[in-house]
Amino acid sequence: MENDSDSASTATRDAWSKRNFWTLGLVQITVRTGWIFKTESIIIPVVLDTLSGAAWMRGFLPMFSRSSYSLAPWLLSEKINRLPKKKWALAVSLSGMAICFFGLTMLWMVFGESAADWMPVAFLAFYAAFFVCAGTTQLCFGTLQGKLVPAKRRGRLMLLGNVGGAGVAIGAASLLLPFWLESGDGKFHFIFAISATCFLAAACVGWQLAER
Predict the structure, then answer these.
(1) DSSP codes of every residue in 69-105
(2) Is residue 169 within 8 Å of 33, Cβ to Cβ?
(3) Three-class DSSP category at 15
(4) N or C, fewer C-beta in 10 Å, the chain?
(5) Residue 129, CA distances (Å) to 20, 102, 103 in order
(6) Distant-in-sequence contacts of 178-185, Cβ < 8 A, 24+ apart
(7) pLDDT tens profile 147-156
(8) The predicted structure's pLDDT at residue 179
(9) For 76-109, what is each residue's pLDDT tens digit?
(10) What's phi and psi for 149, nearest 5 deg?
(11) If we measure between CA atoms, which residue out of 179, 48, 58, 189 comes closest to residue 112?
(12) Which distant-in-sequence residues (6+ apart) come within 8 Å of 81 by Cβ?
């Protein structure tokens, strides 16, 4: 009986490990797809130039992205480590990333470029909040990877996320961005919306992790 119980337990662990491998891989692919539509080197500077036109405003982008991205792991690492199920934190942080871009979508749809005085400030506030959530997501993902994926499979997971994510992201961007950036008339609300949708989808996928 003990051998049968041990075999069943091992089979369950193997099934959970395989499920978690593909689930985390799909989270990476989905996040990378959403990320390419908010590329810091192209899309975000164009949006900020459209809103403000002041070159010094772009100087806030690397400062906000790096400081906000580093701040959350520093402040939240202990709290996340104490959580019984880290997938909750992953789902919440990914949802936060989605909320930030849904906020930008609504902001652009309602006001567009009409409120030039305060729109750059609102945009940068959403941008900084997004990177707080993104830093938390990175922390949660690394913690879950270490907890749920055997060490010998983590390289494969990285390969799946990088290669699969790059392929899907580049294909989606090549297909959609030309329609939304044609003739200098940036339909940025569509770009923000697809990023938000991808991040929300990643949160739903992350919730499916088998974590004890």
Answers:
(1) HHHHHHHHHHHHHH-S-HHHHHHHHHHHHHHHHHHHH
(2) yes
(3) helix
(4) N
(5) 28, 12, 11
(6) 181/46
(7) 898 888 889 9
(8) 81
(9) 888 888 888 899 999 999 999 999 999 999 988 8
(10) -110, 125
(11) 189
(12) 143
| pLDDT at site 199 | 97
Q: Which amino acid is at 84?
A: P
- Rounded to 5°, angle at Cα 84 from 25 and 82: 105
Mark the ranges of the chain whose per-residue pLDDT is less than 50. 1-2
Q: What is the pLDDT of residue 51?
A: 77
Q: What is the pLDDT of residue 99?
A: 97
Radius of gyration over every alpha carbon of the chain, rounded to an integer in angstroms: 19
Q: Is 78 exposed, middle or buried (0-12, 13-18, 19+ CB in 10 A)?
A: exposed
